[in-house]
Amino acid sequence: MKYYKIVVDSKEKESGVVKALENQDIEIEIATLKVADYIVNHRIAFKRLTIDDILKSIFKDEKISGRIGGMTNVYERPLLIIEGEDPFFPGRTVNLSFIQSFLKTIAVSFGVSTLFTLNVEQTAEVISSIARAEHLNKPDTCRIQEIQ
After folding, report:
1. Fewest beta carbons within 10 Å, which of 64, 65, 91, 113?
2. Cα–Cα distance measured from residue 12 to residue 54, given in angstroms and rounded to the nearest whole number
């Protein structure tokens, strides 16, 4: 029996996170989402990026921070998940100030919290544990009312 439902952006369908969520007895609905990658309910949504996604956006001058900030217009508690290796390990060839600047902008300008995971399994665990906590603490707001 599936106890929780998470709406997943169609671009995330093949990420591996969906399969890991399904293995945790979570109902998945695939939809085309405008600003988020994963929606827990009308309060909480996630954007999932890898370190490479962030670096590509910095060097290609994409406005990824604006897309993340756009979640704040729709969700009360938007979260950014950065998946993959430690972005601050000493052997990285990119100047750490780029990554730190990006994270500061997300936190200070938009109020979006950042969580770090190592792989798709950890990402799925973070999303599902927050969905469970949200359901237990606020069962009346757990329902997804509108897909954005």
Report:
1. 91
2. 16
